[in-house]
Model the fold of this input.
Amino acid sequence: MLNLPRIRANFPALSLLDAGQARVYLDNPGGTQVAQQVVDRMTHYLVHNNANHDGAFRTSRASDVIQAEAHSAMADMLNAASPAEIIFGQNMTSLTFAMSRSLAQGWQAGDELVVTRLDHDGNIAPWLAVAADRGMTVKWLDVDVEDCTLQTEQLQQLLTPRTKLVAVGYASNAVGTVNPVAQIAAQVHAAGALLYVDAVQWVAHGPTDVRALGADLLACSAYKFFGPHQGVLWGRHALLEQLPAYKVRPASAKPPGKFETGTQSHEGLAGVLGAVDYFEWLGAHEGSAYAAQYKHLQGRRHTLCCGLAAIQEYERTLSHQLIEGLQRIRGVRVYGITDAQQFAERVATVSFTLAGYTPREVAEALGAQNIFVWDGNYYAVEVVERLGLAQNGGMVRVGAVHYNTPREIERVLQAVEDLAAARKP
Done:
């Protein structure tokens, strides 16, 4: 069990009260609260080092050092081979649109792309746009409506010699499913295609190892792992060197600079560095039980993995408590994996519907009790339509992370149970 008081002390927002009532942040799949380390890094940057890139003076040199440190920190976070494989941008969706245009320069009419019914639209719409522009064919990997897992057995039938890229999510932002990315990567590469992974919904929940996954490109967003609104893209260095970049002429011709369009959010990069600082703190204070498991790693990467492994184990207890509790409430239907034996295949992002209420009505009722949850489709348009819920307002989404407590889960369950009891016959 994590030392929750010590962990929560790192997050200033968790201590806020509204009319004496504590906030319950279970809106985390849409964005987590930031750690104090992030606030400190960003504040220090803006006060002491705020300057543009590549100047001959003190603040510019200090700013460039921080940006280099942010690239190195994210390389350790994702197990990239080099900081040059880390690209920063506005957000995952913007980075994906930019990378899709770069990749498309080598594609032509009749080539094929594969997308899934489970993904966030940030990993679907860019590829649909490229296909429309280039006259390509889009194929869809379907989702099993019973447990919201990808029908990966169909993938082999979709792959052909004309397949250029497969886009898949690491974890579903709608129903929490963790996809077998390494298995998918092996199939995709055997067909001679590239694999683009949306890891936005995963990185906060467990260790990420881009080399072990076998992906070619992987995107995530720091505001989903306790940092600022900042996008991150990892790519294999050989691929990044080969791809054309849409850039201004003075920009570097080498990665990552050739893909980091214009002036970056320097304070945002400082904040990313702060988020990695927090994970490093967590590993040092909460991850000792996992040190032997990661004894083959060294330095910051070792500490980060220990902390993320501790997160992963704790969050499974929250998944169990939340799913089991919701299933006991009359009129609730939980979507996604509900078998506790399969909780390694999901994160603690749980979506449900409650008979007699629209998802917005449930979210409003919980919000009135200072419990923050999402409703709708959360940009996971395809899976919500596939489940037949688009016309009814989607689902209610409760997303726990490691700073949430069992008591907070109890508050949610009690609130939903009270709504169910108040439902008119």
